[in-house]
Amino acid sequence: MEQNLYDLMDWAGIEELVYSEGANPCRLLGPHMTDQGLLIQTLIPTAVKVEVKLLSTGKTYPMEMADEAGFFAVLIPRKNMTAYALEVTYDNGTTEELRDPYSFASRYTESDLKKFKAGIHYQIYEKMGAHPMTIDGVEGVYFSVWAPCAMRVSVVGDFNLWDGRRHPMERLGDSGIFQLFIPGLKAGEIYKYEVKTQRGEPMLKADPYGHFSELRPNTASVIWDIDHYQWQDQEWMKKRAASHPKEEPMLIYEVHLGSWMRHPLQQDEEGKDISGTEFYHYREIAPLLADYVKQMGYTHVELLPVMEHPLDASWGYQVTGYYAPTSRYGNPDDFMYFMDYMHGRGIGVILDWVPAHFPRDAHGLACFDGTCVYEHQDPRKGSHPHWGTLIYNYGRPEVSNFLIANALFWADKYHADGIRMDAVASMLYLDYGKQDGEWVPNIYGGNENLEAVEFLKHLSSVFKGRKDGAVLIAEESTAWPMVTGKPEDGGLGFDFKWNMGWMNDFTSYMRCDPYFRKYNYGELTFSMLYAYSENFVLVFSHDEVVHGKGSMIGKMPGETLEQKAQNLRTAYGFMTGHPGKKLLFMGQDFAQVDEWNENASLEWNLTEYPVHQQMQDYVKALNHLYLSHPALYEKDYDPEGFQWINCSYDQESMVIFIRRSKKKEETLLFVCNFDNITHEKFRLGVPFAGKYKEILNSDAAEFGGSGMTNSRVKNSKAIEWDELENSIEIRVAPMSCCVFSCTPAEEEKPKKEKKGTKTFAAVKTPEDSGTSEKKDTSARTTKGRTVKERMQKLAEKKDELGKKAAQTVETVQKLASEKVEKLTTKKVEPEKLSTKKVEAEKLSTKKVEPEK
Q1: Which residues of 412-451 are buried (b: 16+ CB within 10 A; e: fewer)?
Q2: In this predicted structure, what is the pLDDT of residue 800?
Q3: Looking at the record, which segments are called Disordered (predicted)?
């Protein structure tokens, strides 16, 4: 080695690189201008010869081996930088020409680093992870990861024989971020990060920001370009941005893609099952699911977590790849197609998301750089004893940034229409699922997780600040106040909250034998006492049909399947009428008998049997009823949208209520009978005089009922009932829910008359009297006066009668006053005096009809 080159060598630094303990390889590797020329150094283990080829001239310069571990250096007599390539010969005789990864600048700006450190870099996913790109005309992949306490981080994969010495990453100041651009890599390559801890222990980690992963049980990340897909849902996105979700219909079909429908497992040549072949592809399942959803009348699908997860039995709730759709069903482009297709069919897609905890898998986020990076170091704060998972350190800005950016990522890159946040209650309480001594109080001595509360407010503010119509939904099972309140008012900022209280109470009520339901009537009506405290979604979710809880039809009382179905139809009918958006888990709309099994397809063959087919038809009818009547969704969160007609029929186990929209004529009347008693002539109060037509009855024969319906329109009568002036009399079948449309009397449209006739309210026309007077636009009556003249006469007579009525009232008031004065001079019993006063008041306010 020449003396001038030898003098430029940093032998301590070279040793650090050779032993792969350096966090700043760019300090030595790559091109460096010196007083003596252009110094180029590289570390390529297993290389026996390396030459530098200047791309501008094609001239080559042999590099000298400074260390047998593969460290080469050359000093080129130049006064400026120039592009070059490395021509490498390996010990196995193969050769390769490659661009030097350490000759490319970082993509991070000082602003990027400051924002990430503050936890406000909401598009950090554009920097972190693996991004195929072209820099200075060179194609390759840019890698970036956060590992603040790591001694060294390298990119490893098949492309470098998983050798952590080949591509050590450059640490950017004190940010904890490592980055490197590797030329020549393309989408589809697998990779991991080799993280060397401060104790010198190397670990292989999947990319926390990776866009794709290998199919389990393999755990490597896969390079993928997620920016080249051509979306076709512009109209949907535009419409969504202008929407008002709280006033619009929302019928959610909750789906687990891995078990909604399955293929038979394929086998290899040896007869062994090929794992993964049982799943439907994203592109394959999209049209099948969309057809079913549209047929049944659902507006949205909610997918159990599609983020990458290693364990099928976790249903996706133990996530390791937060930025990667699971490879079980295809690649990122395929999932984008799925979302795009759903939007093209007019179906919204809500994604389940799990920011509450993460698993301890060695390739995941746990102890990412040898220290507690994403989780709390204190196990009393950082561990879930019940689930065996780890809790995020929400107070660390970079961790908060990771999660907030992730929620935005799914809305931005995959056009998600909503994020349903799992297990929010476990985030809000420090003692969730813990015993005394297992948790640490906050600074005020309470059990509230103040850092998590701030995180949720921060997330909702940023997410909703985009104003693109996407919604945030919380699964919060406690009575934490203002979950759907505005952050500026002290709320958490969610758009909707699952109504777990209603679900638990109503399920408990429905489990009771009908005879005993009268003793649990409060479980049926209690939810309306707090119905407007939050923007609720009524749910029968996957959590209610697993772990021995039974399917929905399995929860119902009854000795036969038909009796159970009768109960379930009534339950679904009541749910449809109750204020709040709706969610139903797959399989429960056709009354699957068995609990949900994530390892098997739904039992679609059951729909060949009458009970299940009729249940499916009934739910379809309910859904379409919901969609076609604004009263069932327009005022879900306005007390004016609901009114009890009677919620005191505890002995009869019945409830009667109405739902209203912004238009009076769209009012709906619900009558729900949860007992086995038949009511042939049941009178009930109605909100106004008019016609009441039954538009759905769970006891209809087509749904498997007895056929005890109300086929004729019911005209209300002025009979006071249920503290209302008008009422109707109907038939009520046992264990049934019936729905009536309500047409106010004053808004009834006149019947269509025969051609050539005209009708006037309360006026007899010549045609009606049988005369043949000449017809003209004045529409004369039989007495020869026009309607206008007659109405004028009536008005004059009305004024005259009004004056007489006023005189009468004045006289009555005077007599009443005199009577009261006489009574006050005598010893009169209080009750009699009170009666006389009431009579006097009635007389003084009594209306006198003009005709009388």
Answers
A1: bbbbbbbbbbbbbbbbbbbbbebeeeebeeeeeeeeebeb
A2: 65
A3: 750-789, 818-852
Across-strand partners of 131? Answer: 142
How far is Cα 405 from Cα 468, in angstroms, rounded to an integer? 16
Residues 6 or more apart whose CB falls under 8 angstroms from that of 672 comprise 570, 573, 574, 577, 654, 655, 656, 736, 737
Q: What is the CATH number of domain 110-222?
A: 2.60.40.10
DSSP string for 235-285 = HHHHHHHT--GGGS--EEEEE-HHHHSBPPPPB-TTS-B-TTTTBPPHHHH
> Residue 52 corresponds to which tokens in the numbers above?
């530098």
CATH architecture of 234-268+280-498: Alpha-Beta Barrel (3.20)
Phi, psi (deg, nearest 5) at residue 691: -110, 140
Q: Is the pLDDT of residue 833 over 70?
A: no
Tokens, residue 809: 């009232």
- Three-state secondary structure call for residue 747: helix
* Phi-psi group of 433: left, alpha or beta (phi > 0 → left; psi -120 to 50 → alpha; rest → beta): left
CA distance 464 to 494: 9
Q: What is the C-alpha separation between 508 and 513, in angstroms, rounded?
A: 11
Which amino acid, one-letter code, is at 525?
A: T
Which pair of structure tokens corresponds to residue 339?
């979302």
Asked whether the beta carbons of 681 and 721 are under 8 A apart, the reply is no
For domain 500-746, the CATH class is mainly beta
Cis upstream peptide for 217 (omega within 30°): yes
Entry pTM: 0.85
727: β partners: 685, 717
How many angstroms separate the CA atoms of 669 and 192, rounded?
A: 61
Residue identified by tokens 């994203």 is: 282
DSSP string covering 337-354: HHHHHHHHTT-EEEEEE-
Of 321, 352, 382, residue with least CA distance to 543: 352
Show the tokens assigned to 437.
């001594």
Between CA 716 and CA 729 the distance in angstroms is 8
Q: Are 741 and 693 in contact (CB under 8 A)?
A: yes
Average pLDDT, the chain: 90
185, HSE (Cβ side, Cα atoms, 13 Å): 30
Q: How far apart are CA 570 and CA 739, in angstroms?
A: 11
Query: Which residues are identified as catalytic?
Result: 422, 475
- Measured distance CA(599)–CA(588) in Å, rounded: 17
Q: What is the dihedral of CA 480, 485, 491, 492, to 10 degrees?
A: 80
Helix 234-241, helix 332-344: angle, nearest 10: 70
Q: Checking phi first, is residue 548 left (phi over 0); if not, alpha (psi -120 to 50) or beta?
A: left
Fold for domain 3-103? Answer: Immunoglobulin-like (2.60.40)
DSSP class of 698? T
Q: Are strands 736-744 and 668-673 parallel, antiparallel or unpaired?
A: antiparallel
Distance CA 547, CA 372 (A): 33
Contact 740, 748 (CB under 8 A): no
State the Cα angle at 707 between 701 and 712, rounded to 5°.
120
Q: Which residues contact 628 (CB under 8 A, 6 or more apart)?
A: none
**pLDDT tens-digit readout, 468-480:** 999 999 999 999 9
For residues 28 and 46, give the distance between their C-alpha atoms in angstroms, rounded to a whole number. 19
Q: Check the CA dihedral 761-767-771-774 and report its sign.
A: positive
Give residue 87's region: left, alpha or beta (phi > 0; psi -120 to 50).
beta
Distance between CA atoms of 611 and 564, rounded to whole angstroms? 10
Q: Which two tokens stand for residue 572?
A: 């679904």
pLDDT digits 0-9 by tens, 516-562: 999 999 999 999 999 999 999 999 999 999 999 999 999 999 999 99
Question: Whole-angstrom Cα distance, residue 616 to residue 297?
Answer: 11
